[in-house]
Amino acid sequence: PSRHRRPRRHPPRPPACPLRLGNPAASLLKNPEVATQISQLFRRPDSGAVTDNLCAWLYDTFHSSEPDLQLVVLRFLPTLAGVYLSRAGLHKPLPGFESVLLAIYAHETAARNGQAITVSIPDLAHSSIYHETKQTAKNSSTELHLGVVSASLEPYGTVRSTRRARIVGVALELYYSKISQIPVGSKIEFCEFCKIWSGQEDENNGDGASTANDSQKVEKKEGRGGRIILPWEILQPILRILGHCLMAPEKNEELFQAAFSACRCLHARALHDINAKVILATGSLVKLAEMAIDPAAAAVDHTEISMSNVITI
User: What GO biological process terms does the UniProt entry carry, in alphabetical order (predicted)?
Assistant: First the structure.
């Protein structure tokens, strides 16, 4: 009688890594030489024009169905957005940059179906396992309180001055959602542009005036305008990205210092503009960074009442 062999069971395959070895997109994403060359091309005075082949390549690449290639485009978003926002105030047409930003914005609009991103906020008027309230609730049902993380999206085909902040902000939101896969060099470039956008100097930087002079020379050479308007649509994703750079599990010292310096510059800008919301947000990031540097400072409980026999009048 013939023997029937049982089919050999193979172990389950591990989940596919987003950036597989031997994948050309992975090599392109993490190649420092390619990143340097593309960054230099973005900083050319004629970059972002309608005839810019680099912008055309990024536009076509992002429209591909490969997530790895889309990630390559996002890797260069800080430099693209940085140069674009710094030149937008010069009233110079930049259709090359805008085509890439619109492609990213349209992708997010389709992925979210234009819907807003919200989070549920507990109603403190009702008691919970963490607190008790003496207020009498009007009804027994808990009202739903929603906090809007990202507002609803409308389809845009062109970039206008009134839409620019929203379009760039949505692109940065997508960058943040993939930030764990973004190389460190891209994040450091983002932090440097945040310092330029703030228009403020980092007073805690040891180099002082020499660093400021070098930054001015670089800005003049690359045609960047420096300080820009920072509405909340752009600041909100900026602060999330900087928060990741400061508190990410895999800490990189160079990235941490770049993000810390960027937070101090943005905090100085918020103090200059007297923007209470941004002062609180940037001040919190600065405090978290200081606590990460000096853990002993975090152990101090400033709410504790000290006991003393001396009465101060």
Answer: phosphatidylinositol phosphate biosynthetic process; protein localization to plasma membrane
Give me the DSSP letters along the chain: -PPPPPPPPPPPPPPPPSS-TT-HHHHHHT-HHHHHHHHHHHTSTTTTSTT-HHHHHHHHHHTSS-HHHHHHHHHTHHHHHHHHHHHHTTT---HHHHHHHHHHHHHHHHHHTTPPEEEEE--TTS--SS----SPPSSSSPPPEEEEEE------SS--TTTHHHHHHHHHHHHHHTGGGS-HHHHHHHHHHHHHHHT---TT-TTTHHHHHHHHHHHHHHT--------HHHHHHHHHHHHHHHH-SS--HHHHHHHHHHHHHHHHHHHHHT-HHHHHHHHHHHHHHHHHH-HHHHT--TTSPPP-SPPP-
**Spatial distance between the Cα atoms of 83 and 47, rounded to a whole number of angstroms:** 9
**How does the average pLDDT of the chain come out, rounded?**
82
**Residue pointed to by tokens 């409980």:** 301
52 or 125: whose pLDDT is higher? 52
- How many residues comprise the chain? 313
Q: What is the pLDDT of residues 249-263, one digit of tens each?
A: 888 999 999 999 999
pLDDT tens-digit readout, 218-244: 444 443 457 899 999 999 999 999 999
Amino acid at 87: R
Residue found under tokens 């619109």: 102
